[in-house]
């Protein structure tokens, strides 16, 4: 018997990542869709050969459903993921795990109480270039890491979100809360923790709503750009910029500067990873292209999640990992608002 999966929320992330990747996974038998908008759930059930339920409760009380993907919008994660875990389901929660530390703690505590698996979809850990870079850093092939810079920007979620307009929930303070920092920034914070085997502990930042407007033509209520300075527990220094206004091309690059050379990740169009030694010698890796909004490839997240359930393994991104990244993003937002350095 294969695994039955329930998906809460049928927006773009479900349509382009969760549903097709569950469908392609050999261990998954059936996908059951729920969305407050029944038409949206029905459309995906038709596309991916699943079925629809009218309420979340139907998913949570069905003993044959073992797995839940929580693809609801950010402000609901703590409600649905907590309930699902306490109903005895394994949960894959979209990022950010929540909008507040208190709500994130609720999910983490529910996981501990239930003993079920909780993984959070910080998908940058799964790309081959990032995994290879981590290996090079861990083996100290270029010596110790000194500094870093990372960027994540594209032309904005109104191109991507389900209604493809500037009325998107990403632009609403009460629903998205963290703007581009919670949408894109949190991915890179998680990535830095993963690559460097370290944690960001001090931050400063500037933010603004520089260009985006809502459906009424007014500046959006959350930041569309944020630029940060970061210091880690091990003393590494770095910068990060996150943007919804990179018009023309997405940028998902990270550069790590070490004692004996430089690692450039997703910096070149040709090579996903470039190693530049102190003497100028270069090593290029052609691995796989990273997902962009225009180029959806299998993220590996669903397969890894199903494997950790099947093989009784620790998830690659735990609730605590996600909570740690959320604390950094909340610190960055506070630093930008107060104009001061914040200790996480």
Automatic annotation (TrEMBL):
Residues 130-263 form the GFO/IDH/MocA-like oxidoreductase domain. Residues 3-122 form the Gfo/Idh/MocA-like oxidoreductase N-terminal domain. It holds the Pfam family GFO_IDH_MocA. It comes from the Bacteria. PANTHER family: D-GLUCOSIDE 3-DEHYDROGENASE, UDP-N-ACETYL-2-AMINO-2-DEOXY-D-GLUCURONATE OXIDASE. This is Gfo/Idh/MocA family oxidoreductase. It comes from Neobacillus driksii.
């Amino acid at each position: 018997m294969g695994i039955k999966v329930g998906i809460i929320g049928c927006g773009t992330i479900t349509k382009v990542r969760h549903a097709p990747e569950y469908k392609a996974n050999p261990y998954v038998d059936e996908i059951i869709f729920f969305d407050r908008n029944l038409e949206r759930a029905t459309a995906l059930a038709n596309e991916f050969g699943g079925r629809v339920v009218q309420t979340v409760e139907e998913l949570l009380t069905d003993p044959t459903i073992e797995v839940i993907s929580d693809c609801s919008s950010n402000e609901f994660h703590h409600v649905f993921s907590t309930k699902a875990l306490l109903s005895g389901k394994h949960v894959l929660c979209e990022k950010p795990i929540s909008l507040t530390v208190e709500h994130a703690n609720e999910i983490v505590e529910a996981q501990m109480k239930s003993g079920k698996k909780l993984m959070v979809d910080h998908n940058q850990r799964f790309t081959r270039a990032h995994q290879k870079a981590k290996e090079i850093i861990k083996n100290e092939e270029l010596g110790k890491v000194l500094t870093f810079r990372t960027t994540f920007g594209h032309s904005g979620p109104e191109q991507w979100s389900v209604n493809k307009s500037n009325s998107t929930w990403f632009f609403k303070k009460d629903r998205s809360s963290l703007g581009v920092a919670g949408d894109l920034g949190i991915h890179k914070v998680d990535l830095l923790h993963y690559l460097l085997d370290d944690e960001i502990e001090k931050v400063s930042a500037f933010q603004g709503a520089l260009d985006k407007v809502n459906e009424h033509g007014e500046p959006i209520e959350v930041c569309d750009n944020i630029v940060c300075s970061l210091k880690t527990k091990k003393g590494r220094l770095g910068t990060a910029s996150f943007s919804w206004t990179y018009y023309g091309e997405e940028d998902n690059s990270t550069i790590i500067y070490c004692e004996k050379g430089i690692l450039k990740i997703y910096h070149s169009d040709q090579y996903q990873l470039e190693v530049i030694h102190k003497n100028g010698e270069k090593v290029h890796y052609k691995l796989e292209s990273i997902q962009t909004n225009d180029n959806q490839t299998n993220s590996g997240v669903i397969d890894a999640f199903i494997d950790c359930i099947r093989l009784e393994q620790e998830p690659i991104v735990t609730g605590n990992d996600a909570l740690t990244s959320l604390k950094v993003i909340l610190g960055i937002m506070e630093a930008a608002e107060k104009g001061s350095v914040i200790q996480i």
